[in-house]
Amino acid sequence: MKKKNIALIGFMGAGKSSVAKELSRHLKRELISTDALIEAKEGRSIPQIFKDSGERYFRKLEKKVVAEVSREQNLIIDCGGGVVMDPENVAHLKANSLLIYLWATPEHLYENLKKSPVRRPLLEVDKPLEKIRELIKMREPFYQQADITVDADKKTIKKITQEVIRVIS
Ligand code: S3P
Fold first, then answer.
1. Which residue among 54, 77, 96, 154 is the one 20 to 30 A from 71 at the CA level?
2. Residue identifier of the C-alpha nearest atom 15 of ligand 1
3. Contact predicate 62/89, CB 8 Å
């Protein structure tokens, strides 16, 4: 039976990639990461794309990838944190996916990001916590377009995954 994709959205550091991996394992569904797909297509890392070609170019690639994966079924989609800023991306995703927003406070995101090995070019600034607060303020209405919001604040990946499975069942 064909099933809608499950697309995880939310700010950098919310745990989208780790939760997506767990969901993929538990629900036996293929995992697609928009960032990983962009990197594979371009043959260079996200920080390198930002550095050499700029954010606008990255967003163009992201848009293509979102349109592509939105045509599929049965996937777990790990969306880059900025995907929902483009209304067409949201429309594409919503056509075929259940959108789940992993919500967390700026402080929690910041703590997670400090531990993360993944580089986030947008946060490579003097005051990352302030930047996180500023970006979230701007992005929150976009994240709110999700079908379901899951509280990911100060929770383990296991707990968040369990919660996602509970709300979709
Ligand atoms: C971005 C989030 C990143 C990545 C890029 C831009 C954003 O993905 O797509 O660095 O604009 O929020 P994660 O949310 O997986 O860190």
1. 54
2. 80
3. yes
Residue 83 phi/psi, 5-degree rounding, is -55, -40
Q: Is the pLDDT of residue 2 over 80?
A: no
How do residues 86-140 score in pLDDT, each as one tens digit?
Answer: 999 999 999 999 999 999 999 999 999 999 999 999 999 999 999 999 999 999 9
**Residue-wise pLDDT tens digits, 10-20:** 999 999 999 99
- What pLDDT does 1 receive? 65
- Nearest residue to 140 (alpha-carbon basis) of 109, 118, 111: 109
CA-nearest of 11, 6, 5, 33 to 142 is 11
List residues bridging with 32 in a β-sheet: 77
List, for residues 38-63, the tens digit of each pLDDT value. Answer: 999 999 999 999 999 999 999 999 99
Residue 104, ligand 1, Cβ within 6 A: no
Q: Look at the pTM and tell me if it is higher than 0.90.
A: yes
122: Cβ below 6 Å to ligand 1? yes
The residue among 60, 12, 168 whose CA lies nearest residue 68 is: 60
Tell me which residue has its CA closest to atom 10 in ligand 1. 120
Q: Calculate how far, in angstroms, residue 12's C-alpha sits from the geometric centre of ligand 1.
A: 6
For the purposes of burial, counting CB atoms within 10 Å of the CB of 44, is it exposed (0-12), middle (13-18) or buried (19 or more)?
Answer: middle
